[in-house]
């Protein structure tokens, strides 16, 4: 893998299998940042933009696309998110913290399984890395259990696939061990309060540069 190891200072990413609790923890972190008066923005991929909306239709199962098409869409959505107007690069360079629910590691893990590693590796090689990456690790069974009350599940939300995603993430993350990105492993089976505390401890370390309004 030949990935660009450059880092965007002030960019933070949450990753993990479906049901690992990233969205809940993102909301909790947002509250803390607000209280601490740290300028920030909470984002997610797929984004709410036009490409992200198209991806959601494919994830729902309503639209069937070739796996390679899906990999391209995720990469195109990401490129807007990173380089587009009011994107991550622009926002972080203005001194704001940007925290994203999912980033390239999702494509490398999920599309690595649906397409094989080559295409997602190529499509994502040029994207800069976050300063801080929180990886929520959780057994796939627990993730599926947490999602059982949802009214509908997306195409990837099946136990055997989620088990493969969990393994794929381990492989993908090991490929970034030589980068300067700080990887924090979260045991996502712990209680929500202690997870929030761990996330806040780590995030506040990089916040000194973002205090004030
Ligand atoms: P997410 O928003 O976390 O799921 P939910 O709707 O349950 O909150 O993510 C949507 C799905 O998209 C999730 O199964 C992971 C998948 N995904 C990829 O396969 N590749 C990617 O590059 C990204 C960003 C997400």
List the topology elements.
Elements: E1 7-16, H1 22-35, E2 40-44, H2 50-60, H3 67-83, H4 88-93, E3 97-101, H5 104-115, H6 118-124, E4 129-137, H7 140-146, H8 159-174, E5 182-187, H9 192-207
Parallel strand pairs: 1-3, 1-4, 2-3, 4-5
Helix pairs in contact: 1-9, 2-3, 3-5, 3-6, 5-6, 5-8, 7-8
Thymidine-5'-diphosphate binds next to helix 5.
Averaged pLDDT: 96
Largest sheet: 5 strands, parallel
Count of spatially separate domains: 1
Query: Helical segment tally?
Result: 9
Output the structural class: alpha/beta
The unreliable regions are none
Determine the CATH superfamily. P-loop containing nucleotide triphosphate hydrolases
CATH architecture title: 3-Layer(aba) Sandwich
Strands of the widest sheet, in order across it, are 2-3-1-4-5
Q: Could you name the CATH topology? A: Rossmann fold
Proportion in helices: 40-55%
Textual characterization of the structure:
With 213 residues, this protein is an alpha/beta fold. It has one domain (7-210): Rossmann fold. It has nine helices and five strands. It has helices at 22-35, 50-60, 67-83, 88-93, 104-115, 118-124, 140-146, 159-174, 192-207; strands spanning 7-16, 40-44, 97-101, 129-137, 182-187. A five-stranded parallel sheet has the order 2-3-1-4-5. The longest helix has 17 residues, at 67-83. It is globular and about 45 Å long. The model has no long low-confidence stretch (mean pLDDT 96). Thymidine-5'-diphosphate is lined by residues 18, 23, 44-46, 59, 74, 102, 106-107, 110-111, 154, 156.
């Amino acid at each position: 893998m030949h990935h660009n190891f450059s880092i965007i200072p002030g960019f933070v990413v949450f990753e993990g299998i479906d049901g690992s609790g990233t969205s809940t923890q993102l909301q909790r972190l947002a509250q803390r940042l607000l209280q601490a008066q740290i300028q920030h923005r909470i984002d997610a991929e797929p984004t709410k933009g036009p490409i992200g909306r198209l991806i959601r239709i494919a994830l729902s199962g309503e639209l069937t696309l070739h796996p390679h098409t899906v990999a391209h869409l995720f990469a195109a959505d990401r490129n807007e998110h990173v380089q587009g107007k009011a994107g991550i690069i622009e926002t972080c360079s203005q001194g704001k913290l940007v925290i994203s629910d999912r980033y390239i590691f999702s494509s490398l893990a999920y599309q690595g399984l649906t397409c094989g590693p080559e295409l997602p590796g190529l499509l994502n090689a040029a994207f800069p890395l976050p300063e801080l990456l929180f990886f929520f690790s959780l057994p796939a069974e627990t993730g599926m259990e947490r999602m059982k009350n949802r009214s509908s599940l997306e195409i990837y939300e099946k136990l055997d696939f989620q088990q493969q995603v969990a393994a794929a993430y381990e492989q993908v993350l090991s490929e970034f061990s030589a980068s300067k990105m700080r990887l924090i492993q979260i045991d996502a089976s712990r209680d929500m309060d202690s997870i929030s505390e761990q996330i806040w401890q780590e995030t506040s370390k990089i916040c000194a540069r973002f205090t004030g309004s």
